[in-house]
């Protein structure tokens, strides 16, 4: 180990003045290489070094990391020529929208209800919402807790019709337009297919929810 450090130090002397760098910068450079193409576009590193060297570090002679956990070990070459084993974490974090207040079912999520928190990629599952624009305007399906990531299944498109609600049914074939009262058999958001009972004919028909309490049947 000392011979390796002496060799590296000798090469630096031959090629020019030795330049030290913050240990966090050196660790991030090596971590980025290990992640390569798997590094998320919005990913940023949070570096934690345990037992950081008191002396300036010239380079990392060896570097081992587990990308899944972010845990790393490295051999730091100091300006004194010594080599010191260091360890810590190089965690990749991503921005995630989280509620700033408790949101209840049927609430519509507004921009002021959210803030952005950076979380380790390992804590962000497949079903976590990561795009704030895709969260704003959605309707809460399950209680959302402040500071906790929002699961895809916890929000839905806002409902414009609720099951059991009275609706207005509109029918058009291009030449003839009719309307009739009905009752919804399902919940529906705008543009969703829905079953309704025509209260005039007492028949069940299927249409498209076009707005608050309105269903259109097109043929």
UniProtKB/TrEMBL annotation:
The keyword Metal-binding does not apply. Keywords: Bacterial flagellum biogenesis, Cell projection, Cilium, Flagellum, Periplasm, Signal. Residues 1-20 form the signal peptide. It is found in: Periplasm. Its main location: periplasm. CDD domains: SAF_CpaB_FlgA_like. Belongs to the FlgA family. This is Flagella basal body P-ring formation protein FlgA. It comes from Sulfitobacter profundi.
